[in-house]
Specification:
about 110 residues, single chain, six-stranded mixed sheet, globular
């Protein structure tokens, strides 16, 4: 019987800080990636026409998911928006930390029909 992974809801800003300050960008290269999202970015997002929203899960050698990451991919292949990838969940010290949208984020998504 496997033990469930502890879960912790966190803010997007906290998860971004963990991602940026703890070498996650470089670490992703050592994991197996699996696409989970690939769609044209809605014009309301303010990205260059033809930009894609992409998301990947990343798995370690034991086939455990360690990260869920999204980003905007512009038609020229560059990262859109901030120019950085955005973590939506990370396994940190055995705890699955996942983003819970703030009220402002929820309102913004409702305004855009998401």
């Amino acid at each position: 019987m496997t033990t469930p992974t502890p879960r912790r809801p966190v803010s997007q800003s906290w998860l971004n800080q963990q991602f940026n300050e703890n070498g996650w960008e470089a670490r992703l290269a050592s994991y197996t990636e699996a696409p989970i999202h690939h769609s044209l970015t809605p014009p309301e997002r303010g990205q260059v026409e033809g930009t894609l929203t992409v998301g990947y899960d990343y798995y370690d050698a034991e086939n455990k998911v360690v990260a869920t990451i999204f980003w905007y991919k512009q038609p020229d292949g560059k990262l859109g928006a901030s120019g950085r990838k955005t973590p939506k969940s990370l396994r940190i010290d055995g705890v699955w930390c996942f983003v819970v949208p703030s009220e402002n984020e929820e309102d913004e998504h409702k305004e855009h029909g998401e």
